[in-house]
Amino acid sequence: MINAQLSGQVGALVRHTAATVVLPSYQHLQASEISEKGPGEVVTVADRRSEEVLTAGLLDLLPGSVVVGEEAVSADPAVLRQLAGDAPAWIVDPIDGTANYASGRSPFCVMVALLEAGRPVGAWIYDPIDDLMGHALDGGGAFLNDVRVEPATPLPVEQIRGIAPATYYPADLRAKVTNGKSRLGEVTGGQHCAGREYLDLISRRQQFTMFWRTWPWDHAPGALLVREAGGVVRRLDGADYAISPDPGEGLLAAADEQTWQAVAGALIP
Q1: What per-residue confidence (pLDDT) applies to 249?
Q2: Whose CB among 117, 197, 214, 259 lies 3.0–4.6 Å from 209's, allowing a Cys bridge?
Q3: Would you say domain 157-267 falls under CATH 3.30.70.20?
Q4: How far apart are CA 215 and CA 235, in angstroms?
Q5: 23 backbone dihedrals φ, ψ, rounded to 5°
Q6: Residues facing 208 on adjacent strands
Q7: Annotation-wise, does 228 bind a ligand?
Q8: CATH code, residues 4-148
């Protein structure tokens, strides 16, 4: 179903949406254009418009497919059930890092994944401020601005850098991270933008990133990118990451197997 031509068309759609919808409103939003869809969950008119444009474009590119977008699910949680259907499913995060975007700061990204039989087969993550596009097809490798990402060289434990934002961690996990992070080179609190953290992982600026909330639109694109770049993405109990409607199962993504084991041993022993 997915091929290089379709991948290029999706990438072009993502860039077009960022250029025509997301960037024009950046740092120009009025207070009336920002609202809360839930406690601590910000949404803007640009999020909704971006999702509308992406949804129409993706359905046009792949007739018979369905789209599961973050804002559509927010309006009607039953939309998530489409991921379990037989049709190819697009997962859309129209603006990942909305809190940053609404505050007039970066990073933020536009993210899309394509699922077939519930499994990611295509991924696109675009940071429009840095004009940085990560994309991957299942079995075809990962690319950063069309340059293939080579497998990472494992680093000594004391040089491993990564992200473990404890904001949503349960108390026991937060305590483990606090106690164990001194065993690694550097552990920071993150950028409030999963897409950018995945881009930093495949660009080797970071060696790992760890999350608690795992909504499909936040992690389906990044998980495929990391795996196609030679990395590892697993639940905190060591099970391979798979798409799930449960937002609170946690995951750890690392640049390679050795790094995953080292980080897991330090932060989630």
Answers
A1: 78
A2: 197
A3: no
A4: 13
A5: -65, -40
A6: 162, 254
A7: no
A8: 3.30.540.10
- Ligand-binding annotation for 200, yes or no, is no
Residue 2 assigned ligand-binding role: no
Distance CA 246, CA 269 (A): 23
Mean pLDDT, consecutive 10-residue segments, the chain of 269 residues? 92 99 98 91 97 99 98 95 94 98 98 96 99 98 97 97 89 93 95 97 98 94 98 95 81 98 96
Tokens of 61: 């590119």
Enumerate the domain spans of the chain: 4-148, 157-267
Name the β-bridge partners of 136.
123, 142
Pick from 129, 259, 265: nearest CA to 207: 259
Specify which residues 148 forms β-bridges with: 143
Write out the two tokens for 18. 């960022």
Contact 195, 111 (CB under 8 A): yes
Asked whether residue 60 is marked as a ligand-binding residue, the answer is no
Q: Is 268 annotated as a binding residue?
A: no
What Cα–Cα distance (Å) separates residue 233 from each residue in 15, 30, 82, 208, 214?
26, 38, 24, 10, 12
* Residue 166, pLDDT score: 78
